[in-house]
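Fold it.
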Amino acid sequence: MTVTKVPACGTGPSKSASRPGGRASSGTRPAPLSFSSYVRARGPGLLRTARSLTANPCDAEDLLQTALTKTYVAWDRIEDHRAVDGYVRRALINTRTSQWRKRKVDEFACEELPEPEPVRATDPAEQQALRDAMWRAVLRLPDRQRAMVVLRYYEDLSEVQTAAVLGVSVGTVKSAVSRALGKLREDGELGVLR
């Protein structure tokens, strides 16, 4: 027969402390609750709390996830697991307050939409009609002005290059082109198309 030595009272683990789910000998501390079982049991109630803090159900789910993440990180530091609900509610409120403070107002309510007017697609026929009218107006210019406008704006030559091609001074090109553009602005056929 083997004799087992029984520890003196209070010097070893009690039967209840060694059982899963048992209480410690002092009776003040319950068995540790697992985080996943807590979330399964209290999730719907906590989600209702989160929904009362936000206007959008999707934001409430995000808020609850953030608060539960903070709770999970601190799970081992929480001594009394009976107070976890209060801890999570406080995390919900603090997180929501932080979100509210960090919120950037990017949108403002107004009567008219701030979007620019949509760019009207130009009709190729209208573009061709404008080109034809412009060319007819250029053909009505005097020969010298027409030559300078064509070289400057159709051939895209500089004033110096236009003067060299025509054998005139740069000042002559500037003044002749200026007078030609004035006549084009006053042309009746182009005024109707604008």
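The chain is about 60% helix and 0% strand.
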